[in-house]
Amino acid sequence: MLPTVARVLDLDVMRRGLPQVVAGASALERPVRWVHVSELPDLAGLLHGGELVLSTGIALPEDRDGLARYVRELAEVGVAGLVIEFGRRYFDSLPRALVAAAERHNLPLVVLRRELKFVAVTEAVHALVVNAQLEQLRVSEAVHQVFNELATEGAEPAEVVRQVGRMAGAPVVLENLAHQVLAHATAGRGEHELLENWEHRSRGVNPPGRTGYDPRSGWLVTTVGARGQDWGRLVLVDEPAPLPPDVPHPHAMLLERGAATLALNRLVVRDRESLERQTHRTLLSGILTHALTVSEVSLRAQALGVPLEGRRLVGVVLRQRQGPLPAALEAQARLRDFTELAATAIRSARLSALVGALDDEGVGVLIALGSQQDEHTSLEAFAAALRRLSAEAGRDGAAAEPVIAVGSSVGSVRDARRALLEATQVADAALHDAPGSRAAYYRLPDVRLRGLLHLLRDDERLQTYVERELGPLLAHDAEHGGQLVQMLRIYLEQGRNKSAAADAAHLSRPSFYDRLHKVERILGVDLDQVESCLSLHVALLALDAVRR
């Protein structure tokens, strides 16, 4: 920071002159860019602004209008202050017209009651100015180095925001254009104090320009975006402090560098999920893994525009019925598109929800229903919107039919984990149902035995049962590359109708019958016995659950 007028007056060399502020005391925090010694009455044309003018006043105008004009011109050019030494022209006081004009223009006017060597003042102040400029260069270099590394490493937005907050020593918030919080850094302060009622507070702060300071709130704000597409704001939240309108905020460069890094990283990772989805995913993951407390989830969701407190919460898990597994990049893109479809469906159904990827295959949704919203009606509206959007995307070859699984509704954030876990279990079970078998969505009663087996899939007794019933057949297929397990599955799914099963397997009846005999020999069972087939069918359903 450049030295202020107040800092200059506090220097030892200035204190020897017994300085006294006689006007413009409220502007003593103006920065001093340079010191200029002059006796010219028409000095303003030689200045650029930010100078501290030293004078004996020997050549100042004598008339009131001339003195007023002299001060006005200095104020208009933006000088930091005017210092007049007693002993040459003035001895005990300055002309009232001069003092009044300085007060009117809020220009710091200082008298020196003892004679000083102006060259000593100039040397001392210029040393401070040069040191400040060198320090600014060092800080600028450090900032650019840090954010260049973050950009090169493809740092997540949360890491960039944390770095800005650490270097500024103040809280920083990244928000979207709807004033919803995407990432934040508290800089050691209370999270609740920072994020509470954020949207309302943020909408009231709109400083001019891409980077601007709001003196009323103390917030420094810069726009985030690139190529003419702005998508958010980076906000430094600090206490209000006096800052002259022509003086840049000390953290403006830091905030702009952080915003540039965020914009660059967004361009680089354009094919990845949006910042909104990342933030939603973080909250859903925090609920499921207990990485975030209930109060943290509620506060952050509220700042994101999804109030959870006092709402009925419904856990939903979405999956897509897929054919052959796609390549990794294709699968990632497909999941990203599916997540965005789900978010669009939520908006279409006029619901409030957290929407984000849960794993490599599924999307989690935590719907927050108000007191006037019916649960079944809301879920049907969401399911209809998602299926319509998926069908539209499917016409372009980009989407498959979604499986919509719903857990129990709960009344608090604390129980949201249970709702999401139940929805996950329902989704895993429902994924094996025939496409188009449901009109809207699945719940636990809809998946029946398959749902029960998915609930028990981690039980070693169920795993032992699967191995006992199907182990030899699984080993045979693994060793010989056969598909006898699939033949058994088709036979049982066709209700033990051998002719229908042969058609479903696209085999001739003799070939299919031969495969069934192999199954009987390997497992040592009679497939004409109902109980044996029932036991094997349960084992196949349990195998699906265990493998999932």
Summarize the structure in words.
This protein is α+β, with helices and mostly antiparallel strands and 548 residues long. It has helices at 5-9, 12-15, 64-77, 96-104, 118-153, 157-168, 191-195, 198-203, 252-268, 275-289, 294-303, 328-348, 375-394, 416-430, 444-455, 460-480, 484-493, 498-504, 509-523, 530-547; strands at 19-23, 34-37, 51-55, 81-85, 109-112, 172-176, 181-185, 211-214, 219-226, 229-236, 312-320, 352-357, 363-369, 402-410. The protein is built from 20 helices and 14 strands. Strands 1-5-4-3-2 form a 5-stranded mixed sheet. A 5-stranded antiparallel sheet has the order 7-6-10-9-8. Strand 9 (219-226) and strand 10 form a beta hairpin. Helix 17 packs across helix 18. The protein starts with a helix and ends with a helix. Belongs to the CdaR family. Residues 484-542 form the PucR C-terminal helix-turn-helix domain. Pfam families: GGDEF_2, HTH_30, PucR. It comes from Kitasatospora griseola (Streptomyces griseolosporeus).
Which terms summarize this structure?
Udp-n-acetylmuramoylalanyl-d-glutamate--2,6- Diaminopimelate Ligase, Chain: A, domain 1, Alpha-Beta Plaits, Beta-Lactamase, rod-shaped, 548 residues, 20 helices, alpha+beta, 5-stranded antiparallel sheet
CATH topology of the largest domain: Alpha-Beta Plaits
Number of domains: 4
Rg, alpha carbons? 37 Å
Give the C-level CATH assignment of the largest domain.
Answer: Alpha Beta
Low-confidence residue ranges: none
Number of helices: 20
CATH-level-2 architecture of the largest domain:
2-Layer Sandwich
Beta-strand share of residues: 15-25%
The N- to C-terminal Cα distance equals 61 Å
Label the overall shape: rod-shaped
Q: What average pLDDT do the residues reach?
A: 85
Helix coverage percent of residues?
A: 40-55%
| Classification by helices and strands | alpha+beta
Spatial arrangement of strands, main beta sheet:
1-5-4-3-2
Main sheet makeup = 5 strands, mixed
How many β strands by DSSP? 14
Protein name: CdaR family transcriptional regulator
InterPro entries: CdaR-like_regulators, CdaR_GGDEF, PucR_C-HTH_dom, PucR_C-HTH_sf, PucR_dom
Pfam families: GGDEF_2, HTH_30, PucR
Family: Belongs to the CdaR family.
